[in-house]
Design brief:
The complex is a heterodimer. By secondary structure, chain A is an alpha/beta fold. Chain A contains ten helices and eleven strands. In chain A, helix 2 (44-60) links the parallel strand 1 (36-42) and strand 2 (64-69). The chains are: A alpha/beta, B mainly alpha. The A-B interface holds A 71-72, 74-75, 78, 81-82, 97-98, 101, 156-157, 159, 164-166, 171, 186, 188-189, 191-197, 201, 204-205, 208-209, 211-212 and B 56, 58-61, 63, 68, 127-128, 131-132, 135, 141-144, 222-223, 226-231, 240-241, 243, 251-252, 254-258.
């Protein structure tokens, strides 16, 4: 019996491998249609957008498979430096020391701005505060203001929520909001700022806790959180984040979103990036609450 | 003749395999320790000791003070131990000594199922249910605190403690209890004065394993303790956010550039964790050893 089984397997083996060989050979005959695998990793801000793009692109080009994972901008860039991904997503620009590390590793990161994003400052809907200046947000996060009363709210302690330090959003918020974009400003987050490992951690705490203030990419703000209007300074208008207010430059906390490749992209990666700049792909950007490139 | 030689051969191979698996534990521990030393050791040269023992942890701006992380882990673990040890031993005593047979047969497997509960799921429950309720109940600024973490970690440690302690109590000979009861001791006196002391080393092992489980737990604490690297300030620390060593390593290891100062410091934190669990083990086994010697002296 056993011998019979082995014989059967032996007989079937060439059939199976033959089939596999044929199917992989068929698209190979046409160089345009070669099957390809793209590894895409990085920013949690971009991950939903990257997933939506990958899904659409794979429908249009069934021979290309794209794997998308999050983990944070730092994680994606580290993976690019280590050579484990084709495209790194980042919600901040690559740092000089990361470029240095990449060059030491024989990698040459090339930058693409793929969309824009507003960072929304959010509170619980029960919180009567609905607008803040950049200076006030900076004072709240640096620990100078610790009660909502100081910014026109109720007598409640302020619970500060932030993403972890490996998040591009965290770094952007530190540089552009806490330090107000000033190079020689060394303000740090208050020590008791809660560092939450995910966007979901922030939104669930905001939903539940009327003391909390948080920030996240506009695409991640759910309707059960209250988005604050932000003013550049006390004299300026308070502006709510939206595609228009980002593109006309009135909303003060907006940034570019990036993809990085090792060297100028070629082949499937290049075709994918070209497609990302097409009107169809930028339409998906709008659908997900980000701001398309004009 | 032939069959006997094959027998001795297979016996030889088996003994060697068993010997190998026995030694492998030692080999692995030593190898892991040397790996940690080579990866974490350089941190001591790159960051000065006062900077390392400062109170601010903010690695992206090169603040590498590990004190708040160390204290965060200790606060959460201590809180978990305070909850898990009495409840765990109490449950073990109930299951082993007091519960009727049918209750024991339901409870023991149930506790063991609880022990296999994935900690991520527990953390999720903590975020959705426990943290909001604690915030309302205790009127705290936020429910993501050391106390929330300690409660959940206590819950994780209890099944370990119950399971091991119950086995130890079960191993105490029936005659000990019979003798105590015959001398007129009440059931409580028998448990407290005879059975528990007789099972002491096993119970201590249970506590040790439970505490070890608590200090090494990562996912749950990362989800519910808020991860704010704050220095302890009295009893209020228990009800404010803390950042533990394990959560720090888990949250930051993915991002660091291989071989950077931050990378080395994270491994140094790993060494610290390793040393702490070593310390717990050595202390516990020293206590057990001393106890045994004394009882041997009494018997002889």
């Amino acid at each position: 019996m056993k011998i019979l089984k082995y014989l059967l397997i032996l007989l079937l083996l060439p059939v199976i491998t033959g089939c596999a060989g044929n199917s992989s050979a068929a698209p190979g005959s046409n160089p345009q249609e070669q099957s390809a695998y793209i590894e895409n990793k990085g920013s949690d801000t971009i991950v939903n957008l990257a997933l939506a793009w990958a899904e659409r692109y794979q429908q249009l080009h069934p021979q290309v498979s794209i794997s998308v994972t999050g983990g944070g901008s730092g994680t994606g860039i580290a993976a690019l430096i280590n050579g484990t991904v084709d495209i790194a997503n980042a919600s901040r620009q690559i740092k000089p020391e990361e470029i240095q590390a990449a060059e030491n590793n024989g990698k040459n990161p090339v930058e693409f701005v793929i969309a824009r994003d507003a960072i929304a400052v959010v509170v619980n809907p029960e919180n009567p505060v609905d607008r803040l200046t950049l200076q006030q947000i900076s004072d709240i996060y640096s620990g100078k203001i610790s009660n909502w009363q100081a910014v026109g709210g109720e007598d409640r302690p302020i619970v500060r929520l932030s993403r972890e330090t490996n998040s591009g959003t965290h770094v952007y918020f530190l540089e552009q909001v806490l330090r107000l974009g000033q190079k020689d400003n060394h303000t740090l987050f208050a020590k008791n700022t809660l560092l939450l490992p995910s966007s979901e951690g922030i939104s669930s705490e905001i939903r539940d806790n009327p003391n909390a203030i948080g920030y996240d990419g506009l695409g991640y703000v759910t309707p059960d959180q209250k988005v604050l209007a932000v003013a550049r300074d006390a004299q300026s208008d308070y502006i709510l984040p939206s595609a228009e207010s980002v593109n006309n430059g009135t909303y003060p906390i907006a940034r570019d979103l990036y993809m990085y490749t090792d060297g100028e992209p070629t082949g499937a990666v290049k075709e994918y990036l070209d497609w990302i700049y097409s009107p169809e792909a930028q339409e998906i950007v709008t659908e997900l609450g980000f701001v398309p490139i004009e | 003749m032939n069959s006997r030689t094959t027998l001795s051969w297979s016996e030889f191979i088996l003994t060697q395999l068993i010997k190998l698996s026995g030694y492998s534990a030692i080999i692995f521990v030593v190898m892991i320790f040397f790996f940690l030393l080579t990866e974490g050791g350089p941190a001591l040269g790159e960051v000065s000791l006062p900077a390392l023992f400062s109170s601010r942890w903010y690695p992206i701006e090169d603040y590498f003070g590990i004190l708040p992380l160390l204290s965060g882990s200790l606060v959460v673990t201590l809180g978990a131990a305070l909850i898990a040890v009495p409840v765990g031993i109490g449950t073990a005593v109930y299951i082993a000594e007091i519960a009727p047979r049918w209750a024991r047969e339901i409870l023991k497997p149930l506790v063991e199922v609880l022990g296999g509960f994935p900690s991520v799921v527990l953390g999720f429950l903590g975020i959705i249910v426990l943290a909001p309720d604690l915030r309302r109940l205790l009127n705290l600024p936020t429910g993501l605190t050391a106390f929330t973490g300690a409660l959940l970690l206590g819950g994780i440690a209890i099944p370990t403690i119950v399971s091991v302690a119950e086995d130890a109590l079960d191993a105490v000979p029936r005659s000990y209890r019979d003798a105590a009861l015959a001398l007129g001791a009440t059931e409580w006196q028998t448990i407290w004065r005879v059975t528990l002391p007789a099972a002491r080393s096993g119970v201590l092992t249970a506590v040790m394993l439970g505490v070890g489980r608590a200090i090494g737990e990562t996912m749950t604490v990362m989800m519910v303790t808020g991860n704010a690297p704050v220095m302890p300030h009295g009893i209020a620390t228990l009800f404010s956010p803390v950042r533990t060593m394990t959560a720090t390593i888990a949250a930051e290891m993915g991002e660091v550039a291989n071989g950077s100062v931050h990378y080395h410091v994270l491994f140094l934190i790993g060494i610290t964790l390793f040393l702490i669990s070593l310390l717990i083990n050595v202390t516990a086994s020293a206590v057990v050893f001393r106890q045994r010697k004394r009882s041997e002296r009494i018997l002889s």
